[in-house]
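> tool_call: predict_assembly(chains=two)
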Amino acid sequence: MTEPTLDPLIEVTVAGVAAQDFIDAYYPALNNPKGRASIADFYVKPVPGKPIAADIVLNGVPSTDPTEIQKIFDEQVTKAHYEVQTFDCHTINANYNVAANESALALDMDGKKMSIVVIVGGTVKYGEDGDVRAFSDSLVLVPNLEAHGPKAAKGLKKWLVQSQNFRLVL
Amino acid sequence: MLQSAPRAPRGDSPNIRSSRGRGGIQKRRAGGPVRVDRDGDLDMDPATAGEKRRSAKGRMEPSRPAGTGRTNSGPARGGSIATARAKQAIMRGIGRGQANVLESRITTTGNSLQVEGLSSSKAASNPDRGVEALLAFLERKASGMDAKSNRTVKIKKSSLRGDKVIITASPEDIATLQKLDGFTFAGSVLSIKSFGSPSGKTGESVEQKKEPSAAALALKDRFRQVLAARYNPDLKLLNLSSIVADPGLAECFQETTNPTKVFQGLMIVCDGLFKTRAEKKEAIVSVTLANNSLANVGDANILAQTFPDLQNVDLSGNNLADMKSLDAWRYKLRLLENLVLSGNPIEAQLATLKDEFLKRYPNLMLLNNVQVRSPEQLAELKAKAEAAASPLPIAGPDFRDVGQVGENFVRQLLPLYDNDRSSLLTTFYDSNTTFSLSINTSTPRNHQNSKPIPPWADYMKNSRNLVRITHPGTRLNRSFKGVEAIKGLWTSLPATHHPDLSQTDKYIIECHSLPGLPDPSGQSARGVDGLIITIHGEFEEGNTTAADKPMRSFSRTIILGPGIPGFQPIRVISDMLALRAWGPLAQPQPAAMHQTPPQQHVQMAMPEQQKQEAMAMQLMEKTGMTLNYAALCLSETGWDLEKAFAAFTANKDKLPADAFLANVAR
């Protein structure tokens, strides 16, 4: 049997746009004290009883609860300025079906069901007088199936963070 | 002497101002009146200023082509030269301001040339003896020397010494100017030689310089004496109160009631005495500016600039009316702890202005001798600021391996990447593996610990930094899929040497499982589980045997999944390498580092403290003294119970009533 495959250019384009959209929304949200209220929305929500949860590691501290991450930024980070200088991304799986219904397992030829690994490099400055540090952030974006289909609510994020490894590297 | 020169109001003397360069002190001639202007320059009398004005016209003569790119401080030069006394040293571009007194500060060695031949040129008959025309000629010719670079050569300073003109410029410009040796200027062949230290100057120029130097040095000495008399080395206090009335300065500043100029003169001398900020901080902690009729601290701005780390400032007895009169120091004196404002109109409002002062000065504790912030509050604020600067605790690596698959892979990855990239590829990579690299050329550096950045040329054309590479076709071309494509790229990349994994301070390696990877056997539609591994580290680049090898820092994210059955046990699905300038990795701050030391301290202190408390209790019971008095008594007798009791017995009649516990029979 031959697996159906995505057109490589579509794959690269969709992955690039997904990564770019994430970066354009996520880091500004961290920078903006008001935006932090929406940080949990960027992550896959844990589903009780199912092995579905985001795996989030900030500076070596793991968590599977996006609201916990939001709380950290809300309460501990008084002021932050993240600036992305570089990013790169690959498709991991063109047909990511971890949370998909039995009826929706087929490959989406527009690349809407890919899982994407993103590596982001940049700078961050915490507080008023903090040093400018360098960070590296490795993320896996997976499709937000709730945003798919005709009945989906508008304004939902198309991609959610399934895995994150953030590190200050300087 | 002491002619009373008509003074334009401060800030309204264009002639004088425009004819001056940067701060410095010069005196026109011995015995004349000496005043400093706004920048601390000793001012010349109006006659000179007038002459300058006239001569400034002369400068417009055609000898100087427009737009040679020189600094616009020309008038200073022209003016000075035009006077009959112009034989004295001329500091081109600095005007007369930066003159003899500060000559020690001006280093001329290395960047100076002496130009001979001006006196025999036709230009020598110009009012300025042709200096202006010569300098314009030199700059024009030198700028044209290297047509390709299109660089403009600038002469920073010049001075006429006898027949020679000494010019100063940047080292590159000097090199170019030197090539003009032998050029003909206005009918005279120029000789351009490097000009050594000032000691090599001719007898004539020494003569010329002696007269103003002596006078100016005398003034500098007077400033020094004033400073010495007003400096208390024990308190590290500089007392500048009632400075205008100082007998040592009265003679010089008899007309002015504004102490600004005096501060400027004094601070210039201070700058000479204390070379670095650290030296200043060490020498002077407190300054009193009391009774100086200051209506605005801006008049003493130079003080805050010269001593930015002052902790105590006394501004009492001035005319400071409101917050506005302190605005000039709004962002200065960040270490200020104690500010005295008594005897100022603002004093009455201090209670309401307290918060504003606290906001302005993060270290302020005493405002007009009232505590506005306790040391504890200050410490708390500092701790908060520190926490804000590092809000996400840095823990050690979070390496959640599955059956040592990740560990075994990493142990093979780095040595194989260094030594045998093709066998790395055949072992772990397959036709669906994607690899790409991206470089970050603008990563921040650690200023205490950095290395030169080797050129990025070997990586640049394959860098997939998607911030910069936005075209989908290019993005596709720079992602390398399959063993052959990756091999082609890796062969073109520089050799690397990663440090051994045992050097744990050089790596942060994390991993955890990742669901939903493509199943190479095609059996599971929902995908299979694998690992995502991130490695932050560094490597040496190239095959050089040099001691100081070029270094880079990297972050590499690899996704590992099960391999095709019967072919490989595991395979790399994605490998992304991000390179940046080398910098030491942020090391984990174990919680212990913050908490353990105080805990240890407490533990160490406890036994001793407990012992002393027990002794004090005993003494209290024995003597009926309060616990405090008992402790006091013990501490005075070296915590010896017997001696303490003896001391108590000898002195108990002298002790006040409150030394004893109530209701205890003595």
